[in-house]
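Let's do one together. I've listed all components of the complex below, 235 residues spread over two lines.
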Amino acid sequence: MSSRPTLDLRAKSHLSYFAYVCHRFSGLLLACFIPLHFLMLSQSLRGASDFERYLGLTDFWVFKFGEWALVILLAIHLIGGIRLLIIEFGPWRGLRKAWTQLAILFGIACGLLFLYLAN
Amino acid sequence: MSQGVLQAKLWYAQRISAMVLGLCVSIHLLIIFYAIRGGLTAEEILGRTQGNVPFAIFYEIFVLACFVHAPIGLANILEETFSRGFISRLLPWVLAALILVLGSTAVVGVYTGGNV
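Okay, and this is what the predicted structure of the assembly comes out as:
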């Protein structure tokens, strides 16, 4: 049986619930991506030319979009994670809503910076 | 070990690894932004990493922190969303093994550049 509590609409419309969903969603997608990322980098064991050939396999818009999305997810998960650590280990000062907003802004900033630098 | 003690230890391990990852991800994001300028080639990547001991140590620490952090997170999600069955227990172990083996292989790969 699931151990997840049943939440009503008031709890789900809270900013902290949004932060929780963002953190879970980004964490889950990053966990799926990390083995693939390592698999790609481990091809460097075959030497520079073969590694380049494998890197070339990701030269499709789907992969480019995926890389961009993952950088945003990584940024959101980073700031969301710092928020959680501050809540759990720091002095209690509420649910640190500013950190939730910062996570979104930092994610957008990293996404834009990625687009700017990648071109 | 009782379930309560195990849960407490897993919670603590995930938080400690999160602290390490906070530093590693911040540095990694900076490296990503530096590396993607003008495209990413194998030569560029290996030029930075091949024979670079501090780079290899940093990324192995990164891999080990991921190895602790991600499977515990996945186990929490699976346990809270689905029942605590065989698949919910197996998947985090599979993820842990993939991260450790592929991650360490990747670190050796970019350090040696294939000249093992």
